[in-house]
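A reminder before we start the practical. When you read a complex entry, don't treat the lines as separate problems. The point of joint prediction is that each chain is placed relative to the others, so the output describes one connected object in space. Small molecules and nucleic acid strands, if listed, are placed in the same frame. In the example below there are four entries. Take a minute to note the order of the lines before looking further.
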Amino acid sequence: MENDKYTIGIVGATGFTGSELARLLCQHENVTIKHITSETHKGKLFSDLHPQFLGILDQKLESADVIGDSELDVIFLALPHGVSMDFVKKWKHKKSKIIDLSGDFRLSSPEVYKDWYQKDHVFVEGFENAVYGQPELFAEQIKKSSLVANPGCYPTASILSLAPLFAAGLIEEGSVIIDAKSGLTGAGVKANDTTHFSNVNENFKAYGVGVHRHTVEIEEQFSILGKSNVQVQFTPHLLPIDRGILATSYAKTTRKLDQESLNSIYNDFYEGKPFVRIRKIAPAIKDVRGSHYCDIFPFWDERTGRVIAISTIDNLLKGAASQAVHNMNLILGLEEKTGLEQIPLRP
Amino acid sequence: MENDKYTIGIVGATGFTGSELARLLCQHENVTIKHITSETHKGKLFSDLHPQFLGILDQKLESADVIGDSELDVIFLALPHGVSMDFVKKWKHKKSKIIDLSGDFRLSSPEVYKDWYQKDHVFVEGFENAVYGQPELFAEQIKKSSLVANPGCYPTASILSLAPLFAAGLIEEGSVIIDAKSGLTGAGVKANDTTHFSNVNENFKAYGVGVHRHTVEIEEQFSILGKSNVQVQFTPHLLPIDRGILATSYAKTTRKLDQESLNSIYNDFYEGKPFVRIRKIAPAIKDVRGSHYCDIFPFWDERTGRVIAISTIDNLLKGAASQAVHNMNLILGLEEKTGLEQIPLRP
Amino acid sequence: MENDKYTIGIVGATGFTGSELARLLCQHENVTIKHITSETHKGKLFSDLHPQFLGILDQKLESADVIGDSELDVIFLALPHGVSMDFVKKWKHKKSKIIDLSGDFRLSSPEVYKDWYQKDHVFVEGFENAVYGQPELFAEQIKKSSLVANPGCYPTASILSLAPLFAAGLIEEGSVIIDAKSGLTGAGVKANDTTHFSNVNENFKAYGVGVHRHTVEIEEQFSILGKSNVQVQFTPHLLPIDRGILATSYAKTTRKLDQESLNSIYNDFYEGKPFVRIRKIAPAIKDVRGSHYCDIFPFWDERTGRVIAISTIDNLLKGAASQAVHNMNLILGLEEKTGLEQIPLRP
Amino acid sequence: MENDKYTIGIVGATGFTGSELARLLCQHENVTIKHITSETHKGKLFSDLHPQFLGILDQKLESADVIGDSELDVIFLALPHGVSMDFVKKWKHKKSKIIDLSGDFRLSSPEVYKDWYQKDHVFVEGFENAVYGQPELFAEQIKKSSLVANPGCYPTASILSLAPLFAAGLIEEGSVIIDAKSGLTGAGVKANDTTHFSNVNENFKAYGVGVHRHTVEIEEQFSILGKSNVQVQFTPHLLPIDRGILATSYAKTTRKLDQESLNSIYNDFYEGKPFVRIRKIAPAIKDVRGSHYCDIFPFWDERTGRVIAISTIDNLLKGAASQAVHNMNLILGLEEKTGLEQIPLRP
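Here is the predicted structure of the whole assembly.
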């Protein structure tokens, strides 16, 4: 019965993660979307902004103020970095669980945040409660959390690619290079030079070389897994496609492996994790597009004595919206796959 | 219970329509896929051919021979034109309902078939029973049918774009021009010059000018609707995208209309048809991609006294696989929307 | 010798036509680029804005004011509609020939301009001198002109597709439909929703249905050619590619033709026009991309008694910058092909 | 005068490098194309195969046999690996200089060739004379050569990215990782699953992980430059674009550098090399597309103590056809830039 459903709100309807959250949640059997908010477009219908939803989700957009007066089970913040923290602070006394898709609570401290985001954090206490929402690594903590920091898209692909080796203490210090490539939606819905079609189409380039914020997010999680202070070289690139991230991760190991043992390490580590698929050949982005899967191909290069682990996800789903729904399922005690079984759309 | 489900088979697993049928049907609540066949790849797993299905549909591919001995409720033929008819003939005594996605039974007679397909038809009796499977037009006939000729992709977009005006007797004879554009998957999975990336990407061209087979399919259906002998000018073009058809249809009307009356005609005609959406602005292909929707924008050009009706569908879904599932739902007496409520994937 | 070269200026360096003009003109053997202007970026180098020119054209950008004091042979205005006319007015006493790439002087009168551009024209006298710069049609007038209105991109493809039939008086009144498709650069360099990658990529749509400004430009030129008042149905669409326009033009003829006579009409009309190529099969956009060619395929559909003429150009070149250079060659009395012999870039 | 021009032949007209060679050479002021050959298409016109050349290069295709009887100054072999060597052997007594665009003579010995190409070499003597045709590194040797092994596309981008550091003895052993990405034309003109539009478009993947043939080509050249036995980790990926390669090269240095000293090393090394541009920001593929440029961005990451050098070329030009023309210019004693000054085509 509808009455028995959990109630949720989506704050920020304009962006890609907002519309993807709406797409997943309006068909999720255990929840009802009570509110979708947009300060810019309040009063319009959700389907006015996103015509693909015409006749499917014609809900009226509201101001975020309505959330304050509302008893929701879960609030999703689909807002830019630096904006989310204002809302988390404002709603700190609410009973609602908050799942924040921005980067505001992903790092270990306000100081690290300031170093990489060039901004003072306004809600320092948030760091105590926030749990890093990578379901494959921290499911138990997430279940008990009231504030989930939903991981970044690049970090999700990067962390999952080498987590088994860090957890096994097999990574040689200073040897990790992650060469990552993302579709354009990672740059957001805002129209600017970066997102102009003629700068993306038939083109390819690196950006944020040496300074991208996701570097520290990856390093911190690897440091936790590896129980040491990990430094990685991370280089993002912009692909002329809508969706998808592929990370090519390189690492030296502390002892010689072979392909078979490498496979075992990955298969064992991801045993029981329904959305990680260990592949025997290099995966393509379209193998996961439109789905919650993360496909990983771990390769042992006997010639060079190096591991190459290639992982791929849909940046808007496993790298954002469906990961948030996965976290919601954990928090609400639902079966973790609920509402997440979309099959990759290929071609 | 699984035991209560209808049993189905998919003949032809290699092509795009085969894999899209599998994607829809393996999550359809009322059916079980008993067999998926491929003569070339029998013995392999479905997910060997289509790695996006790894862990989702790992069913073994079989020879079509197994269908002969099997009591299935519905058989889907996802085969090339000229091949389907052999199977329909071979299985004519089976109780299974057949939904044929090829062009073999879409036309009115073997003679017309030969004219446009340059091939003798091997199963002339099939024409008597075959029903043209456009659910928005012929739902009642489809429900009683045992052989459904699933419409072509271009015909679906084209016919739906002007059906209300033909049905109302409003189209001026000889005035219809349909300028249609399709994504590359319409050309099939076979590797050849046409499907080579470098001939499609950043490119655009017309093809089959004046002679495309879908012309006669469209003309026959309009002739039925309009109760007269209709001739149309139909020109297909190849878009550098994976999925989607957009048809820009032009027609003179037998009397002057205005925008309001035109909207009424379309809204009334498609009243109660859940997958046709009448739009107030020109639709984009991405508004329907990955879904069963057909969006139509009827425009009255006061200056020229002409109707321009722009329709768009996903060629692999509304133009093929999901239309076939829609037909199956009708045949099996299920709620027509079952298994077809995927929300368009955008971006 | 450099000293003997004609001097030119390019007003407006930011947009696509500005950079394409610079690309063509900096390698044109008879001219020297004296000034390139940009109000927004003056002081920067041209190659700061357009890094592909690094080491090739590092000229400093200046304010358009320098043009006023400069004795240039030719001034190219690569400015938006509604801005060009201010400069033409301001510089009306200069001896420089002006080639205006905007729409400000393409139409027959300020009244028609206001109807379609929703703006009062500030330089009415300009209409007396302005010559419509379609070199294949008006070479003699262009040679003598001091103000050339460089044709629009869609009009160039559209007009050339049917000009031979209009000139021969063969077009049936009211029968012309032009269904045109353009790459995204036609929408300009400005970042907005229309040009955002995710709205263009893997997408396709019509726009400006029934109201696009190029309609009247096409009608006026056809009216001149056909010596009657011509009305056309013109529908533009947006292709997910950078460059290129393809126009599919439909017309009824006043008498029955056949393929051979149609070919003759086109071949005769374009005899001696080096950049129009009459094709025997439907052309693709990539057959002309990066070049000054216009490829046209005239097709007689015996079944429907209609001509389909498919033409394709590079919208930034034949539809803008190289057409402007062609006009300059005519004005300066140079061989018309000078600087325009780039071979289409394919793949 | 035409009579004073050098005569050349192009063996292999079907592929992308063949048509690009023809495009460059038919406008090269010092040469005349005497023969273009194709066994499959002999008798047809070059423009029948490549319609973009209609009216530009309508030369008749001949059998390669004509080359045997012809006194040509230069022969270009635009043939697959394993086929070129047959022709080089057959024509070993001819006076013509041969520029081979295949991989048959790029490696140091027949043994290494067999290891990486899985094929016995048929013309072992060829290795003695063959010069590796990287004009920026070996111009003097190329000038005196009669058999030039034109470098691979990935090797060109890869080698140029780190050559200055290897030449300076600054690369730490075993530290080099080259993560390279190429447009689809690198996969050739042949229609197969790899080149099918639906497998490339909106997709991205690695291939040849750990085993790609270009690995050894890169290692051998770095070993020569670095005067030691160099091993590199090389991973190619397939981009959904037509043209272009971007290589992201990572290396540890034997001593700490800084950004300024790194820039100096690159600027000094490429001083006087007109087609290498040292960039201050990460280059994009479109900055060089359609041109002979190689843009390189050397970056010193102070945090990790690593160099990241990002290079980009047009794979069909600097990575194949224009590099071959560059080599021809050197061999014939022409100014090295002749016929190679096309400005990058952007957008």
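Discuss with your neighbour: The interface with chain D takes residues 16, 19, 23, 26-27, 50-57, 185, 202, 242-243, 277, 279, 281, 283-284, 286-288, 290-291, 295, 316, 341, 343-347 of chain C (CB under 8 Å). What might explain this?
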